User: Which sequence fits this backbone?
């Protein structure tokens, strides 16, 4: 069986084969065989491998960037930044994993009592196309340092990115079987989850995919971590400094062609600033131009696939039919993956632009009466991934942030993943955490030792 991918900019079609059962079996067997020796290495030895992976990522940064652009349309400068972030993550966990994984003494009446963190074994990572390198390393760097081995089922439109990551690890000297790539479909993935050699699953993807993977993992009593969609609020209060707020609003909504789970999607504005913010936001977004991802002059990437572009436009048109007003964009470009920076005003409940995640370069303006309504509207979603609050009073912003139902809330700053901070969501945005101490512990057996 084979699958065909299409370059979002050039339209070039590239077929690639799915793996036959024998190849899947060989990958599972290799992972199981590699785990004892990898987990037996000292943390310093595993750290040496991760530092070599970081160096190899940087050495291959140009090729990796070209592959990302060809498979999912990422702007070259965004792709290069993604490679660097991945390399930095490898170095961070090489430096800090020993502290995160150290035995934790707990005072009891025992002579000694403590908690230790023991690797689980092989973890299956089901990853999305929108950050085809970073999403993998966000899991892989802490996971490998914890002593686990990994198999990657990447999105079917970025197979060359998956293979390139495997080549990086092999070139860096990571032992065979510690990381493997599975080019498989969803049915095959369910069988891999069920295989007793796979001990846990991590997924970043859609709400639908999360429900399916969680059900399969739960049926086999396996731990899973899910990072799913988001419809992140970007609250702009009357006293916000628009010179700082507007550029971040543009970057957060339109970076990566708006195809980011933690992008700002709902711009919740209070009366004293609403008209000024919307005007400045439209002026800044109007300067973005869709173009060749490898052209440094391009400021807005094409969308990853034609079907995603068409689905996004249907949601825009449905919202307009229900009363939303198009302030900017709203018409598909000439190519079948081209969609302009789009801003909708007068967005209200019952519209896709209010109720659903618009995964593309479309911003929704939600006007509210005051900060209390801003918080209520921010929380009036089934999602809960990220959020931000913009105000001249940081203490006021922090008070509001603590009232927002999201995995992360940033005050006067771009919402982003950071290796030093736990990352994940609540409600329909998933459960569990990646990154930092919380994330590295997710795929360990948190074992109590009690010595009387």
Assistant:
């Amino acid at each position: 069986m084979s699958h065909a991918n299409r370059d979002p900019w050039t339209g070039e079609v590239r077929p690639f084969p799915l793996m036959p059962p024998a190849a899947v079996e060989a990958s599972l067997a290799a992972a199981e065989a590699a785990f004892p020796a990898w987990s037996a290495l000292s943390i310093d030895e595993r750290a040496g491998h991760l530092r070599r992976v970081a160096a190899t990522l940087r050495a291959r940064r140009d090729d990796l960037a070209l592959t990302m652009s060809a498979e999912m349309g990422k702007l070259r400068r965004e792709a290069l930044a993604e490679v660097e972030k991945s390399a930095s993550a490898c170095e961070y966990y090489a430096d800090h994993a020993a502290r995160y994984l150290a035995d934790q003494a707990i005072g009891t009446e025992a002579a000694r009592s403590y908690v230790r963190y023991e690797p689980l074994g092989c973890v299956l990572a089901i990853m999305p196309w929108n950050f085809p390198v970073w999403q993998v390393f966000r899991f892989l760097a802490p996971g490998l340092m914890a002593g686990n081995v990994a198999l990657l089922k990447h999105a079917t439109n970025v197979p060359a990115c998956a293979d390139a990551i495997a080549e990086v690890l092999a070139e860096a000297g990571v032992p065979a079987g510690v990381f493997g790539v599975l080019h498989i479909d969803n049915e095959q993935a369910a069988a891999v989850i069920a295989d007793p050699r796979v001990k846990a699953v991590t997924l970043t993807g859609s709400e639908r995919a999360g429900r399916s993977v969680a059900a399969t993992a739960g049926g086999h009593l396996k731990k899973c971590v899910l990072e799913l969609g988001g419809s992140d609020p970007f609250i702009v209060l009357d006293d916000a400094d628009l010179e700082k707020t507007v550029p971040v609003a543009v970057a957060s909504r339109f970076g990566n062609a708006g195809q980011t789970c933690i992008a700002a999607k709902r711009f919740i504005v209070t009366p004293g600033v609403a008209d000024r913010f919307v005007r400045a936001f439209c002026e800044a977004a109007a300067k973005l131009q869709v173009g060749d991802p490898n052209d440094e002059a391009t400021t807005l990437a094409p969308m990853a696939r034609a079907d995603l572009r068409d689905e996004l436009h249907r949601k825009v048109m449905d919202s307009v039919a229900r009363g939303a007003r198009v302030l900017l964009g709203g018409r598909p470009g000439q190519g079948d993956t081209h969609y302009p920076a789009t801003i909708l005003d007068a967005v209200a409940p019952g519209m896709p632009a209010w109720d659903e995640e618009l995964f593309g370069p479309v911003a929704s303006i939600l006007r509210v009466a005051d900060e209390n309504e801003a918080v209520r509207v921010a929380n009036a979603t089934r999602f809960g991934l990220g959020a931000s609050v913009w105000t001249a009073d940081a203490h006021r912003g922090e008070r509001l942030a603590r009232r927002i139902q999201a995995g992360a809330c940033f005050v006067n700053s771009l919402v982003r993943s950071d290796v030093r901070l736990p990352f994940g969501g609540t409600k329909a945005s998933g459960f569990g955490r990646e990154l930092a101490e919380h994330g590295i512990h997710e795929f360990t057996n948190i074992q109590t030792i009690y010595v009387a």
Notes: DSSP finds 15 helices and 18 strands in the chain. The longest strand covers residues 112-119. The longest helix spans residues 76-101.
